[in-house]
Amino acid sequence: MKAGVVTFPGSNCDEDLAYALSLSGFEVSSLWHKDSPDLSEFKLVVLPGGFSYGDYLRTGAMAAVSPIMQSVKQFAGQGGLVLGICNGLQILCEAGLLPGALVRNNSLKFICKDVALNVEDTNNPWTSHLKKNDTLIYPIAHGDGRYVTDEPSYNAMKEKGQILLTYKNNPNGSAHDIAGLCNETKNVFGLMPHPERATDLRSQDGKKIWSSILNSLKEKSA
Amino acid sequence: MKILDTSPSTKEIARELGLSTEEYFHICKNLERNPNYAELGIFSAMFSEHCSYKSSRKYFKRFPTTGKRVLQGPGENAGILDIGNGWAVAFKMESHNHPSFIEPYQGAATGVGGILRDIFTMGARPIAAMNALSFGTLDFPRTPEIVKGVVKGIGDYGNCVGVPTVAGQTFFHSCFNRNPLVNAFTLGLVRHEDIYRGSASGAGNFVVYVGAKTGRDGVHGATMSSKEFSSEGELERPTVQVGDPFTEKLLLEASIEVMKAKLVVGIQDMGAAGLTSSSFEMAYRAKTGLELNLDLIPTREKEMSAYELLLSESQERMLLVCTPENYEKLEAIYSKWDLHAVKIGTVIEGNRVMMTKNGEEVVNLPVELVTDPPMADRPSNAPSDLKQRWFFDRNKMLVASLDSKFQSLVEDINFGNPAPLVEQYDSMVGNRTQSDTFDDSAVLRLRDIKNKTLKLAMKADCNPRVTWLNPREGGRRAVAEAALNVALQGATPIGVTDCLNFGSPENPEVMWQFQEAIEGISETCEALKIPVISGNVSFYNETDGKPVHPMPMIGLVGLIEEDLRLPKNNFFSTQLELGLLGVPEGGLGGSMLSFTWFKRDCGKPEDTDLKALDRLLKFCLKLKEKKMAYAVHDISDGGLVTASLEMAFRSPHDSIGFELEIPRETDVDGFLFGETCPRVLIAYEPVERGDLENMSSRAGVPFLHIGQTTDHHELIVKQGGAKVLKADIKSLKQKWDSRWKMFF
Amino acid sequence: MKARIHVFLKDGVFDPQGNTVAGSLQSMGFKKVKGIRMGKVIDLELANETQDEARREVQKMCEQLLVNSVIESYKLEILA
Known about the structure:
The complex is a heterotrimer.
Chain A: E1 2-7, H1 14-23, E2 27-32, E3 44-47, H2 67-77, E4 81-85, H3 87-94, E5 101-103, E6 111-119, E7 135-142, E8 146-148, H4 151-159, E9 163-167, E10 178-182, E11 188-191, H5 206-221
Parallel strand pairs in A: 1-2, 1-3, 3-4, 4-11
Antiparallel strand pairs in A: 5-8, 6-7, 6-9, 9-10, 10-11
Chain B: H1 11-16, H2 21-31, H3 37-46, H4 49-52, E1 70-72, E2 79-84, E3 87-95, H5 97-102, H6 104-120, E4 125-135, H7 143-161, E5 165-172, E6 181-191, E7 206-211, H8 221-224, H9 245-260, E8 266-269, H10 274-286, E9 289-293, H11 306-311, E10 317-322, H12 327-336, E11 341-348, E12 352-357, E13 360-366, H13 367-371, H14 386-390, H15 394-399, H16 402-410, H17 419-422, E14 433-435, E15 442-445, E16 455-461, H18 464-469, H19 471-488, E17 492-501, H20 508-528, E18 532-538, E19 542-543, E20 546-547, E21 551-560, E22 577-582, H21 592-598, H22 610-623, E23 630-634, H23 639-649, E24 657-662, H24 668-673, E25 679-684, H25 689-699, E26 703-710, E27 714-719, E28 722-728, H26 729-739
Parallel strand pairs in B: 4-5, 9-12, 17-18, 24-27
Antiparallel strand pairs in B: 1-2, 2-3, 3-6, 4-6, 7-10, 7-11, 8-10, 9-11, 12-13, 14-15, 15-16, 16-21, 17-21, 19-20, 22-25, 22-26, 23-25, 24-26, 27-28
Helix pairs in contact in B: 6-7, 6-9, 7-9, 9-12, 16-21, 19-20, 19-22
Chain C: E1 2-9, H1 16-27, E2 39-45, H2 51-66, E3 72-79
Antiparallel strand pairs in C: 1-2, 1-3
């Protein structure tokens, strides 16, 4: 299974992701933000955490308009699996691939700690190996992790099973405790917490997402 | 009248720039002419204490700096140790004290930036950071602002670059009110073949400027940090530099890439005294000369003079040397990362650095005259009031109730949970951090090394009370405590870096403290066979003539070579026994209790028994091989009481409590609050006690069974079966949790 | 030609920064402060010939990068 991890200027979880994905059985290639290649050889494209362009305008805003995102949009449009973690989620929202936006934490402070997450929905490629209301322990590490959206959009997302993960103790003020969400067609998923940091060291919970992805990819190709 | 770069200097101008008349005459005599204004700027920066180590250098000979792992000792951007399998670690600690007082956020941020560059210029990828922060107390109105700014500055910079902040020390004392200490440590990982040094060798090679453009920021930062603050010093704002962690991240990635591609001859950060120190030091190490054209320097501001270009401390810039053939390839890699690499000169034979501006020669100086200033011979004297400092009225303490002493301790500002600070640091980026309790030693698993488990443990430590009362013991204890913390995680100490924060070297008492602290560090490193591989000195930490408590901060790194479970750091069950390893009854001299009780630092700290320490360290390394679940915590500030409370506060059990039994014929205060080193609290399953007793007696380490954990959320101390102290752990934890929250 | 863009969080999007500053001002004694919304100002130097053209282009910049219409609104001024 080939996975591509994008490196934007300022990405800093790209190596961590490559490590976690290879441990889980993916064959990982690095993708450069200035290129816009055809991504159809990949089964999964990941936008990593970090501070792309220093997050100087708004988190994820400048990365969202970089050349590679043309390819990512095309790939997603063809049903390819796109995952964004932390800054990756912020980029997906800025690029319009996911609804809503991420703004400063309520506390105005960067927060790094392990948090408990609740699995809200499993009818998708990302959490299919989990059960509804399972608990996952993942670290968060962000200053702009408060998810905002309006009520009608929230209700629509809720109805269509797009909200996959919520915080058990909301650390940042996210609307409806949202920690991870996908698009309507469920092939684009973004989350603020870091499963790649919980793959072999601090906890094993990250593996549950990687194996869900692997399995749904195998089922798809079978 | 406008002073030009080429205007001749006078001794009056020299004095204004911080050079003494003797130094100025030394320069004129050796140069056989008066230096011009731009050259004088170079001398003033390079002769400053900060760059020249003129008061301290001669004492460094005392440090043990050799060992089989040492690949690079002191004198480079950072020291390097072999960790096996072709890998090495580079690490160093540096201060950014003065800038952090003037502008806490930027001061701390740029401090982190500077130490990161020191590490990656060696070819090493930074993988861990620590910080040791010393703040004033709440009687000084700016303290909350300084704490908040410093913590945010460290976090924002390190988080953005992607280097985890994994451990550190935070200390509050009124002596730091107007002079906080911000010490930043970084460790990097490097393959042996990828190690680079700051050397400008090979006549004909290109001198290349990379990174951010040059502005007027920080012109004369090096001389600023070599002056003590006066209260008006609070107005010195314009010399503060502004950090750009995003550019730093690009600079880091691009520089590692050019070094891996072997396109570099030598490389150095433009830190204090910017282009001046980097160019002269690189030429000095290679015994070469340089020709630089200052017109080629990328600038951010208009009409900058040579003086300003040479002394600017704009951040995120480096100087490197490459062969002419590699220049284009190097340029291409930097431009891939959206950075400019610009050739500004060439390496030449000889020993002079020459610089032109607008076609005119503005600098022509022999390298060694600049890099080898006359050493200062500072007198040193023990403080005359040392005996008074050592005195306290033990009787007053003996007659007081145990509860009142306990309360004075837990009401102190230093009794606080570091979580509100620590949570603002990304401690996990890089996916190597296995343990990050922050005030214990951190442990990192090196995922980079295939087919072998290698882990690093690291800790920053120093107790300024002890150092003020007895600087030799202070130095000793800083190394001892750091080594003990690392060994408790099962790591063998392999090397030390120091960051020596002191008052003015012109004060003989400060010089005495300095000398004594170095002696203490050295004898401990010798006893434990740990080399000192890098270091930094920060003098002039004082305000209005009053020096801070001496703070010889130690950063110590240990190595773990097997894949064993790490010990826990909390009371992980309500049915554990508690044991005390090491000195059963600690001394109260220089303890936290003697301060909170008498409201001044007092008493003579007991000397650390280095032989006993060595035995305990070896015992810790044996302990990890035993397959049992156990938890350990070093006993230091506040003694056994705070150590056991911290282990209870971190327990996963809400109802956790514990009981301590004061052993017979033991001084109650010394047992509960004493701080003699080494003392360790261990919690274990009751069935293990026999084994532990045997092991410790074979190892020659005192071991005492002193109590057990319970499930009634109370701390209970008993003596001869009777309760002598009782406190509710939940309300204590509330105090502990909230104490440092008030800053944020 | 110069342009100035004022970017604000939309009404209804919580602004913790503004809230905090308002709180500080109130505790300093500025009791009449009822609320604060913080935003940013972006100044542009342009080589455009006409104001209309400049306005059109800056609007595009706002839509495509400078402003996130999900959470932010903006006001554009063309300064001669």
